[in-house]
Amino acid sequence: MADEPVILEMRSITKEFPGVKALDRVSLTVRAGEIHSICGENGAGKSTLVKVLSGVYPYGTYQGEIIFQGHESRFKDIRSSEIAGIVIIHQELALIPELSITENIFLGNEPRSFGIINWGEAKRRAIELLARVGLQDDPDTQVKNLGVGKQQLVEIAKALNKSVKLLILDEPTAALNEAESQHLLDLIRGLKGRGIASIMISHKLNEIEAISDAITIIRDGKSIETIDVTTDGVNEDRIIRGMVGRVLENRFPDRTPHIGEVFFEVRDWTVRHPLAAERLVVKNSSFTVRRGEVVGFAGLMGAGRTELAMSIFGRSYGTYVSGQVFKDGKEIQLRNVSEAIDNGIAYVSEDRKALGLNLLDDIKRSIVSAKLSKISRGDVVNDIEEHKAAEQYRKSLRIKAPTVDEGVNKLSGGNQQKVVLAKWMFTDPDLLILDEPTRGIDVGAKTEIYGIIRDLAAQGKGVIMISSELPELLGVSDRIYTIFEGAITNDIPIDRADPETLMKSMTSAKKKVTQP
Amino acid sequence: MSEPTAAPKKSGGFRDLGKMFGSGSSGRQVGILGALVVIIIFFQVATGGLTLDPTNLINLVNQNAYVLILAIGMVMVIVAGHIDLSVGSIAAFVGIIVATSMASWHFPWPLAIILGLVMGFVIGAWQGWWVAYVGVPAFIVTLAGMLIFRGANQFFGNSQSVTVPDAYTFIGGGFIPDFGPNTAYSNGTLLIGLVVAIVIVVQEWRARRTQTEMGSEKAPLWVSVVKIVLLVAVVVYATLLFAGGRVGTSFPVSGIILGVLVLAYSFVTRRTTFGRHIYAVGGNWHAAELSGVKIKRINFLVMMNMSILASVAGMIGVARAGASGPGDGVGWELDAIAAVFIGGAAVAGGIGTIVGSIVGGLVIAVLNNGLQLLGVGIDRVQIIKGLVLLIAVGIDVYSKKQGRPSLIGMMTRNRRASTEAPIGSQTSQPLERPAVAPTDSAEESSRPKSTTPN
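Structure tokens for the assembled complex are given below, as produced in the milestone run.
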């Protein structure tokens, strides 16, 4: 790779926000047809760097220079960087759900003559582009009817239409399942064959290791090192060491589980899709949780894991059809969220920004928000008690913020997740359902979250952990249920679980009873 | 992970002044309060002292009390993410029923007031039901209400005016009765002024004690002293003005009603679980619902409360005018909404305070009054009011984009050299709907699509 011409050079980029230096003389060199990964913890400055490159932060708001294809570039907005051939695909997809695939691909770039859009031409080109990204859907399909994985592909088709030379992908596989991720990574490799360079930001180190030609590590706003994978080789530990600046001994904390009796049981839980009445999203699912046990739920995206959890948590999803919930041997009714909370159940949602937090609130208000009654007399909130409670969690969970008066929107993803965990720990639950608790947060914070899970189990609480990352499930759980198309397909004790067994049960409906 | 880095705390001078109104108050609120003071001083000079003349002040309070009462309810509605266009029509409808009940059915005035409140309650329940339980957006429900109740007012009163008995006009144009020794001032007003001054001192003392107990960063003592001295000076000055006006005048009863409502509702929105839930629903109703907030109930109560306050405003309006007519309350809703937004509320909900809205309402009130004293015609007054609304919110939006609280806030902000970078915080609002969201399509349809404030 080292002999390929340099397509992009970012020289000594410094970007300051009021009171903080987000980037400090960061340099980045990308060669033509290279897949270049940027690694770093959350808040290290990866996204800021990419925003500088794509013109989100226009020329003049940062110091340093960007040389793209031999010229110094001074992008004044995203559009000017796109004209130059740099296209960014954000973590949060920027498609318009109500429009069709074709309309989205050509949005702002419609083929037209005399101001009139030539839809025939657009559709013909859309089909071509879709074929290139390996998507077989009808180009007239509304984007809202596509899964996240396919939407990602539409985004890339849109980028290809703009004759992209450098594609920037911010956490492209964060919301994808393994098969979709694999397809996407293959596609990126294919683009490389056509001379399109990619910059990829990802927390999934195995993917980075598999796909990158070069890796630049950023820590605390500084570029630490660039690893040339083709000559030097790389492994995950090497990347982690660069990111955190020290060796992470063990990503999963040691624990000796003290598992008690079954205290929570769900029997024959069946739930209908909220809109399509004939579709059962959860089918006859039964499972148990013991005290002090961490129960993993493995399943591909769309398998119904989240739907199962949310429907149990006060029927927050879908239309309830049938099923019973037992706690401590007695049947309990969970008709709404407050009944679930009162029964000692907590649900940490998979999307902390959309479902977990009010981003306008500060830390203390967020932490107490699910059980205000605990710090209120009558209906009046005692703000001294509130402050004390929040402060206690800030310290014990090590939420990185100067005070609990800080707004949660100013926190990094890992710290926001800790606030959400604190919010649910504050409700004194017996059962915590954690839905993708480590999504989109950095390695260091992940380890801390695993520690919190361990402590919760040690206190005798039951923990259900839903995760798309198999290593994480295998590292944290005592027992793992697999879900496929809304039904529980297997119940595997940890000593018999391995990625292959799990994957098999996650992709087929056949029920194999491995438990005695 | 490393230990939280202790942020070097800078203090002293200007920054501490920013803490005068508590760390909870946004820079925006301090800014708008500053604007109010500037406007008052400007008109006081421009009108040669007429603005702060007792008679004018009494007028100012009487003329604006009802709009400010509406603003109290409106800020709660807007914080919850809705809007209410029907308040003017509801005020008019309740007004004519109350007036008729006294004029034709010979209700004693206390009973008429109770009737008015009950009507506000019933109308509010009606509108709240449509918004919260049927899921029709509040804009539509209250647009319908605006037409329905305007029509009902004119149908009921045959588009005629109904005069009310003199005893009743007390709540709209009355004053605190005088008693006790002749001090050349109204003793009742003096007493109220004294109580307010004492409350200010006690409140500040309690706030400091709470801060100590929470171990949070406290402004230096001199800031508190300056704050108390300033506020008490304003109260003493205002008291003497109101108490020392024409014989027989003093602080208006409508002003007392407004003051009591402001205190009560400030407490409700700031300190009660109900208040917290309003902000939670407006900030992110998905998260609120998954935290056990009964969002339908909150929406219902907020809409109902608005109509009750509209009935109060309507009754005060009738009492001030001495009669209820077909054109009562026209445009009140817009004045109230303008007050709320000038006072710092966010269009998408989740942000706004009672006190901010009252200050916003006073800005409009003083502008109105001052311009009229200067002989500026109603045409130009409207143009100026419109521009003030636009510029106030414009500055707010602009400063948010720049990542700064506001012009005043920028100068007074406590800059933290924290390691917690606000990187991309201004763009971190989620625009995408989550893949699996709580299912409540009725609720969703009544919500604005974007969750980005302003």
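The first strand of chain A starts at residue 6 and ends at 17. The domain at 256-344+429-450+457-516 of chain A is CATH 3.40.50.300 (Rossmann fold). Further analysis is deferred to the final report.
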